[in-house]
Amino acid sequence: MASTTQFLISLPPKPPYLLSYSSPSKPRFINITCCLSIQQARNDQTTSSGSNALNGLRVAFAAGGTGGHIYPAVAIADELKLVNPTSEILFLGRPNSMESTAIPSAHFEFKSIPAVKLVRPFFSLRNLLLPYFLIKSITKCFTLLSKFEPHLVVGTGGFPRKEKCVVCGNPVRLSLKNSVSKAVSRLHFFPWLEKMEGSSEEIKVILVLGGSLGANAVNIALLNVYSQLLLEHENWFIIWQTGVESFNEMESLVRSHPRLLLAPFLHSMNMAYAAADLVVSRAGAMTCSEILATGKPSILVD
């Protein structure tokens, strides 16, 4: 049983640096489509109390591929557990993928489903086996969902997404709502600053984000200039997220420096944004939403 609800989105006040840009004159809406199980629909007809319907709520999330798909789902799951601690959460994704490590790290149950894709060229021998792999994937998915019996399935994008079970939009990570001081967040990444003499107000931190999987253009550009930037500006610090796939290569090419933090992925994004004076990033949907929410000056690479 599917239902679609239309929500009116109220635009937040403009940051000072966006005052020169015009806002859309028409109100913005998003449609949220949810698929409810038949069993839950029947139960809802016989349940008079809305609070009772939330007891034992089971929600399955289908998200994967990149952090822009995974972490909005994690934020929704965190909020569900906060509102209703008795709810059960199950994440579905690909084996040996980013979600296979990120979801367990967020303390949620994860089950893998093999992804099926077409191989180029189209008339490839491997594509002849596509029906077999597709049936195998569907069977695995059906088995997991039949055992878990979710009341609701939520998809935020990526390979495991099902179009009829998608929550549309780009929600900002829940952790961004937590207020963290700039001084505390900088100590989180550079603990030795606590013993540094002089004013910490002169410190400038550049946050470089290549996306969860990395962006070659951003990584190569910074690789060519980071040493000179740190040499010419003694009060500059760089927090550099290379992306998981590019980390080993960048780590072998970058020289160690006390004012440079190299990481494959930043799990504490609220701390990273709080520490930053400037964000350099590829223009991913989630990153643009986070930059807008935090109001940080940024250089975006399309």
Automatic annotation (TrEMBL):
Membrane is among the record's keywords: no
Keyword Glycosyltransferase: yes
Residues annotated as domain Glycosyl transferase family 28 C-terminal: 205-301
InterPro entries: Glyco_trans_28_C, GlycoTrans_28_N
GO biological process, alphabetically ordered: carbohydrate metabolic process
Glycosyltransferase family 28 N-terminal domain mapped to chain residues: 59-161
Key words of the record: Glycosyltransferase, Transferase
Record-level Gene Ontology MF annotations: hexosyltransferase activity
A Pfam family matched in the record: Glyco_tran_28_C
The protein's name: Glycosyltransferase family 28 N-terminal domain-containing protein
Source species of the chain: Gossypium barbadense (Sea Island cotton)
